[in-house]
Amino acid sequence: MARSERQKLKLLYLRDYLLRNTDEQHPVTMKQIIAYLDQNDITAERKSIYTDIELLRTYGMDIIQESGNYCVGSRYFELPELKLLVDSVQSSKFITYKKTGSLIKKIEEMASIYEAQLLNRQVYVTNRIKSMNESIYYNVDEIHNGIAHNRKIRFHYFEYDIAKKRIFRKSGDFYEVSPYALSWDDENYYMVAFDSDAEIIKHYRVDKMADISITDQERDGKEHFESLDMGTYAKKVFGMFSGEQRSVRLKVANHLVGAILDRFGKDVSIVPDGDDHFTVSVDVIVSPQFFGWISGFGPDIVITAPDAVVEQMRKHISAINEQYLNTLCGRCSLDRRGT
Fold it and tell me: Does this model's pTM top 0.85?
């Protein structure tokens, strides 16, 4: 491109230079601006640059001028917001190592080169647990397309064996469901969909889906989702395990009130129960994951009603207890043989 033709790009080059090379701690001079434009085969005089800077201000850029120096002040994303985005990307388990690096580099480009160094210093991705499925981003996009176009999707669903190889469920046959939402739970991304054959709502780990495509069939199960509040629904489901929804009463030690509010929200009704405990009734999907969550608090959270769920919890604990008793007995038997 001839130098005269590049003059039309001057405003764009000036904008990019100020955004990438300045912040309030790192202003540039008019001489530096002219030198940068010249390096890019663009002729510029001080007067024309003054005019361009005013145009950029009119456009909305916060360009600060002080003692002959220029810099960008506030930006669309401030540095603390970019740090938050970097933290979110690097801590997301479903984002692979490769994509994590790619996304963080793009986030850094929204800051000055000096602020980007600060962002880079806070990146600690090594040794974090990350998804092994590089196609997860295409999965998310295809699911959104299915929802937007009111179409069912089909896909293969897999687990890993002890050799870390994919083992497809249903003997490799395709799943075909009606997608309605994507949900984040326990550091994983799930698709919430209606299974027409089972006539129930099911959840699928997005990073364990492969070969997704949209079908020409309209979605089923609309009536199941019209009255479904995903925010409320997510509070009831533990680890996205399906089960029967029940209203469960818990007796909780007072110091765990924060854990209850974090899980079920601030709208739950808390009733004092003596000096050291309170009771709370919550709607949950009863599953082994729910019992595991309860068990994690030891004696400080106890299910008190209904009796059927209390009995399920007792059996859950008994099965675990039996497993460890068998393990200990097996060791005792080996020790006796050794003597």
Answer: no
